[in-house]
Write a structure and sequence with these properties.
about 325 residues, alpha/beta, eight-stranded mixed beta sheet, about 20% strand, binds alpha-D-ribofuranose
Length: about 325
């Protein structure tokens, strides 16, 4: 089986259910907070493990109880956690998340140990990069480290997948050259292309945005558009839109992370991008019907059953 490596963040999510997302200066009351394993990198690794992949995670946590919770969660999904770095001098990353009654979230990340993942750490783990076939990145660790590792991965001939979240104020343009598959959501696509009022139900507008990113060096672009489905602009399977699966969303946290991981898992099995995106669409559709980040991610068995039932019902 092809190997997947995730290089990225781990956070313990402090999730608060709210009636509505608080406005600037507004105070609101919630009656519950849940602690859930999260972090965009860890969510991807956890999802890949749950979906049966051979996956390892390179990232940094503190030498504290939150670090233990995150490590154990990844282990429970079958992720190789031996590359995880424990920093004595840092706390594990945390994310403060509100989830409103529509299932939409807002997130503030306190980076902690995530911000210490360095180019030297990448060098020390070069054997991992060499062994991997597909390497996944997001942007909750230092940009310098992402660029360095992605450049190495590219030079080694690996498939590089980037979930450009969160989009930094200044996106490092060189990174585009190392990316085989870029997976922004609607907001991230607008931020990356600086196209205002992008009409994401308009295929020509999306193609214009995708072309801008392709001119910068990206080969394949997949945009997750929530209720508007997934826009795919791929070298091998061309341009298409995969319709959204209608579900009752309770919490969209980690929907994008599980989508990206599912995509990688299918590519590792030799599927093309369109087939992989159809599968990933089902994985994230299940994830949004459940609360939390890693707690919402389905197993391969659940996804298989779900896909079979959607074929029967259509
Ligand atoms: O993408 C969802 C994740 O973003 C959460 O788990 C949180 O930790 C933040 O990193």
């Amino acid at each position: 089986m092809k190997k997947i490596l995730v290089i990225g963040s781990l956070n313990l999510d402090m999730v608060v259910a709210v009636d509505h997302t608080p406005a600037v200066g507004e105070t609101i009351i919630s009656d519950k907070m849940n602690l859930v394993p999260g972090g965009k990198g860890a969510n991807q690794a956890y999802a890949a493990g749950r979906l049966g992949a051979d996956v390892a995670m390179l990232g940094a946590v503190g030498d504290d109880s939150y670090g233990n919770i995150l490590t154990e969660s990844l282990k429970s999904a079958g992720v190789n956690v031996s590359p995880l770095i424990r920093r004595k001098e840092e706390s594990t990353g945390i994310a403060l998340i509100t989830v409103n009654s529509d299932g939409d979230n807002s997130i503030v990340v306190v980076s902690g140990a995530n911000k210490t993942l360095s180019c030297e750490d990448i060098d020390r783990h070069m054997a991992l990069l060499q062994e991997a076939d597909i390497i996944l990145f997001q942007l909750e660790i230092p940009l310098e480290t992402v660029c360095y590792a992605a450049k190495k991965a590219k030079a080694l001939g690996k498939t590089v997948i980037l979930d450009p979240a969160p989009v930094p104020k200044v996106f490092p343009e060189e990174l585009y050259h190392y990316v085989d598959i870029l997976k922004p959501n609607e907001t991230e696509l607008q931020m990356l292309t600086k196209l205002d009022n992008l009409e994401t139900d308009n295929e020509a507008a999306l193609s214009k945005a995708a072309d801008l990113l392709k001119e910068k060096g990206v080969k394949n672009i997949l945009v997750t558009l929530g209720e508007k489905g997934v826009y795919l602009n791929a070298e091998d399977t061309g341009v298409c839109r995969i319709p959204a699966i209608k579900v009752e969303a309770v919490d969209t946290t980690a929907a994008g992370d599980s989508f990206t991981a599912a995509l990688a898992v299918m590519l590792a099995q030799g599927k093309n991008l369109k087939e992989a995106a159809v599968f990933a669409n089902h994985v994230s559709a299940i994830a949004v019907t459940r609360k939390g980040a890693q707690s919402s991610i389905p197993s391969l068995e659940e996804v298989t059953k779900y896909m079979q039932s959607s074929i029967l019902n259509n």
